[in-house]
Structure formats: C-alpha cells, structure tokens
Design goal:
This protein is mainly α and about 190 residues long. About 85% of the residues lie in helices and about 0% in strands.
C-alpha cells in the first residue's frame, strides 16, 4: 500500500462512518470549519483591499462588502453551533445559505469589474468555479435542516466509507508486500 493510501483509507472510513452515525455532529463541525474559513477569507479580502490594482471605488466597495459579510457570517458560524439549539441552528443554516448566495452575487460583480479593468488578460475560470462552489454550498445549507439533508449526509458518509474500504482493498491486492516492509522497518 502506498503511503497516501495509509492516510486516505482510514481517514475516509472514519469520515464516512462519522457522517453515517453522527450526521448532526458532522454538520456542526463542518459549519464551524466553514465559519473559520469565511472569517479568514473576509480578513484576507479586507487586508488586501489597499493592494488591489483597480482603484475604482465600486470595485473596492464590492470586495469590502464581501470581506465584511464573510467575517460576520463566519463568526456566527463558529459561535452559534456552540451555543444554540436546533431551532436557532436551522435558522442559522438558512442564514449561512443566504450568505453564500450573497457571496456568489458579489463575486459576479467582482468578476465583472476585473473583466472591465483587465480585459482579455483576465482569467475568469477561477472566479466562475468560486461562484459555482458558493451556489452548491448554499444549496446544501438549504437542504440540511430537513430530514432530507440528514439522509443525504448519511448516504454521502456511507459512500465515503466505502471509498476508503475500496482504496484499502485495492492497495492490498496490488501492493501486498507493504505489511512485510513495515514489519521489517519496525525490526530495525
């Protein structure tokens, strides 16, 4: 088994099983991690605002708004799962979904501004991927509060656990000498 499979197989099995047996806890941890990511993204956007090449007020305002919304919703994403119960939690998931939709709209505006400034030299593909990611994540947050969301998380968890098992079995079949190499390494 290659080194990466030693990490991928058990981690995906653990992740998948935790999604199957504790979907609510998995969702809370995911939202907290997403909140931390939103705070870091917002701080980065605001910190780099003065270094942006286009000096148009409209462009800077869009980036500033994106940063502030990211920081605010990120802080809520970190604090609320630790302090509230299900009703408020479900409301917050909807709020986070709306934040992601707002971020997608603001990113569209940012992309348009970059395109105006840079013309043909602007590579829009990363921004399009970012916008699509925001919309997909928002859709997930709108689905999660209901029982459909929990069921989807469990199905996804089972798929990831099976993937981890598949990686392990594949590497056991095609790289069977790994355990003997590990045993010899431990002896020395």
């Amino acid at each position: 088994m290659k080194n990466s499979a030693f990490a991928v197989a058990p981690l995906s099995a653990f992740l998948g099983l935790s999604m199957c047996f504790a979907p609510e806890g998995f969702i809370k941890v995911s939202v907290i991690l997403g909140g931390i990511s939103a705070v870091v993204s917002g701080i980065t956007k605001i910190a780099t605002l003065s270094t942006l090449w286009p000096s148009e007020g409209k462009f800077r305002l869009i980036v500033l708004a994106e940063g502030i919304v990211g920081i605010a919703s990120g802080i809520l994403a970190v604090v609320l799962p630790l302090t509230v119960f299900n009703t408020v939690w479900n409301i917050f998931l909807y709020i986070l979904g709306f934040y992601l939709i707002a971020a997608a709209v603001l990113t569209v505006g940012e992309t348009i501004q970059w395109k105006k400034v840079m013309g043909k030299n602007f590579e829009a593909k990363p921004k399009v991927i970012e916008i699509i990611s925001y919309v997909i994540a928002a859709t997930v947050f709108f689905i999660i509060p209901g029982s459909v969301g929990t069921t989807l998380i469990r199905i996804l968890g089972a798929s990831i656990a099976l993937f981890g098992l598949g990686v392990f079995l594949f590497h056991m079949k095609y790289f069977p000498n790994v355990f003997s190499v590990i045993a010899e390494f431990r002896k020395s």
